[in-house]
Specification:
Shape: globular
Main location: membrane
InterPro entries: UPF0324_pro (IPR018383)
Radius of gyration: 26 Å
Number of domains: 2
Membrane topology: Multi-pass membrane protein
Pfam families: Cons_hypoth698
Number of strands: 2
Helix content: over 70%
Strand order of the largest sheet: 1-2
Largest sheet: 2 strands, antiparallel
Structural class: mainly alpha
Strand content: under 5%
GO cellular component, one term: plasma membrane
Length: about 575
């Protein structure tokens, strides 16, 4: 009996040890710290912006909605007064004093053209000279807007005089109003640039560096690493991140769509493959730690209300085409291209078909891809993203493709969310709205793809013949930060829904998200890309790129993606659900 008791006690000890190990994961594992840090940032953002709404928020929204209700029944198209009411209720918490203060302390380097020092500081004479040029451009843009507005009102009055029964007059009014909206958007952009002021961003960048070093250092300390060593190395990583942002804010680089991610990896690679990454920097070279935290923040930006705003057509474009392309590309890589590495194959497939870097990180974690494989997949994505964000809107405009179709096409094929927005803005408001929404719907698949890859790898790739798939192995392989990504999306969607579209636009979309989440997500991603470069050797990449098979895989997969996405977008938006397209 005593021996049996000892055995039972030993078994109980094992169970307790396993439970304790699982519980300790909550403060010892990187994925969980990404969740805690991400949610801490989101909660701070909510507290700041929900406590400081724009003045007379509800009154202005109510007044604008009254106008919209009247105008919606007065004419069969969106009138000048309708658009003005929409503009009037687009209030932003980021424009409040506290919102401007947050932006001041977290701002990336400013745009520049000739002197790179202007990215960090500008004295009063230089600011005044810049302002004079910007004001001149704004006045010219404003003059065009005024003329276009007058023409729009004249055309609308003519249509109203006919009781809105003349299709010809109605069409002329719609065309004139569209021209006015285009000039209005250009004048608004010019107005922002006409507010140039002297600045010195260096003290704020130093303060931000210290804050982020402590922010991430707390997690490293809890995970059993030296916080001091991390903070010392972090200064170097942050400096490269600042230089990357600086290069990307150059006017020429903006024009060609070469963003901070490409520069961050490039600068990191130059350091690691020339002088070598210093040993004292390596404790802060934490690619997954930074990007996982950033992905939790990304979850808050995926609001269900926005997903439903364009309904079933957008869901078909994103949720049917994307997994089809991913699976087809993976099979093509294995059967036709003969990719030697299955992990590289699936990582490139997910990167290209879902949403670029974010999907690549989640997929690489699920299948345990090598860091150089992730670097190669990300590199391909960044190169083709820069090319596509320039060529696609130019092609769409050249062939006269409708904005809704062009926006859906770009949203489902261009990898990075920021590049999608930039490409959509080139075409117009409708294209920007549709492209950004389709990309947001597609981003939802990050968690789904990570889970499916984890299951497939456990069941088919890394399985032992004759053994059943272990649920615990799937859970162990599944990237836990995805839970934070999903939770953030659900929480913020519920909060936004409870507020209503107009208030959530001001306090959530243009408050906690754009005023906190997106700002820090950009910095976290930049730190991750710098870390990728600093931890990668060209010799490793050369081995992975042998024979050009990854490039062939990406080009063929993206070609299929472009064809299927355009076809699906046309069928859904113009054949199956034209009434939804008409409302956009």
């Amino acid at each position: 009996m005593e021996g049996k008791s000892q055995v039972n006690q030993s078994q109980n000890d094992v169970v307790i040890d396993r439970c304790a190990s699982k519980l300790s994961d909550l403060w010892e594992k990187e994925d969980y710290w990404a969740i805690w840090l991400g949610f801490a940032m989101l909660l701070v953002g909510l507290f700041i912006y929900l406590s400081n709404p724009p003045a007379a928020l509800h009154q202005k929204i109510d007044k604008a909605n009254e106008t919209l209700a009247v105008e919606s029944t007065r004419a069969p198209f969106k009138t000048v007064a309708w658009y003005k009411a929409v503009d009037a209720k687009k209030l932003k918490a980021t424009s409040t004093p506290i919102g401007k203060k947050v932006k001041l302390y977290t701002h990336k380097p400013h745009g520049w053209s000739g002197n790179p020092l202007n990215a960090f500081m500008m004295d009063k004479p230089a600011a005044e000279a810049k302002k004079r040029k910007a004001v001149a451009k704004y006045e010219a843009a404003k003059t065009k807007e005024t003329a276009a507005l007058k023409a729009a009102k004249t055309a609308e009055t003519a249509a109203a005089g006919a009781g809105f029964t003349s299709e010809t007059l109605n069409a002329e009014a719609v065309k004139a109003i569209d021209v006015w909206r285009d000039t209005h958007m250009k004048a608004s952009k010019a107005k922002k640039k006409a507010k140039a002021k002297p600045y010195n961003q260096i003290p704020y960048l130093i303060g931000l560096s210290i804050f982020l070093a402590i922010f991430f250092g707390i997690g490293k300390k809890a995970m059993g690493n030296s916080m001091t060593k991390f903070m010392v190395g972090f200064g170097f990583v942050f400096l490269i991140a600042v230089l990357s942002y600086t290069a990307s804010t150059n006017v020429t680089m903006k024009h060609f769509g070469i963003g901070y991610a490409a520069w961050a990896i490039l600068f990191g690679l130059i350091v690691s493959n020339t002088i070598g990454t210093p040993k004292w920097v390596m404790p802060a070279v934490q690619t997954e730690y930074y990007i996982k935290t950033g992905l939790v923040l990304l979850g808050a930006e995926i609001l269900f209300g926005k997903i439903l705003s364009i309904g079933v057509p957008g869901i078909f474009v994103a949720w049917v085409v994307t997994p089809t392309v991913l699976i087809a590309t993976y099979i093509f890589g294995q059967k036709i291209v003969k990719m030697p590495s299955k992990t590289l194959n699936i990582t490139i497939s997910a990167d290209m078909s879902v949403c670029g870097v974010s999907a690549a990180i989640a997929t690489a974690a699920a299948c345990r891809a090598k860091k150089e494989e992730l670097t190669l997949a990300v590199g391909l994505s960044l190169v083709f993203t820069s090319i596509m964000m320039i060529l696609m809107p130019a092609f769409i405009k050249a062939v006269g493709m409708p904005q809704v179709l062009g926006g859906a096409w770009m949203g489902g094929t261009i990898d990075a969310t920021g590049a999608v927005a930039a490409a959509g803005a080139f075409l117009g408001d409708k294209a920007l709205y549709v492209a950004a929404t389709v990309k947001m719907i597609q981003n939802v698949l990050i968690g789904v793809i990570a889970f499916c890859v984890a299951v497939y790898w456990c069941a088919k790739v890394d399985c032992v013949p004759g053994e059943r798939v272990s649920k615990m192995e799937i859970w162990h392989r599944f990237p836990k930060f995805v839970i934070g990504f999903i939770a953030a999306s659900i929480v913020f969607s519920l909060i936004a829904q409870s507020m209503g579209n107009d208030v959530s636009y001001a306090l959530i979309d243009h408050g906690a998200i754009r005023g906190m989440s997106k700002i820090f997500r950009g910095w976290f991603f930049c730190l991750a890309f710098v870390s990728i470069g600093l931890a990668t050797n060209f010799r490793d990449l050369k081995h992975q790129f042998a024979g050009g098979k990854p490039l062939i895989l990406y080009v063929c997969g993206q070609s299929l993606n472009l064809i299927l996405t355009l076809l699906m977008a046309y069928i859904m938006f113009y054949k199956v659900f034209p009434e939804i397209t008409a409302r956009i």
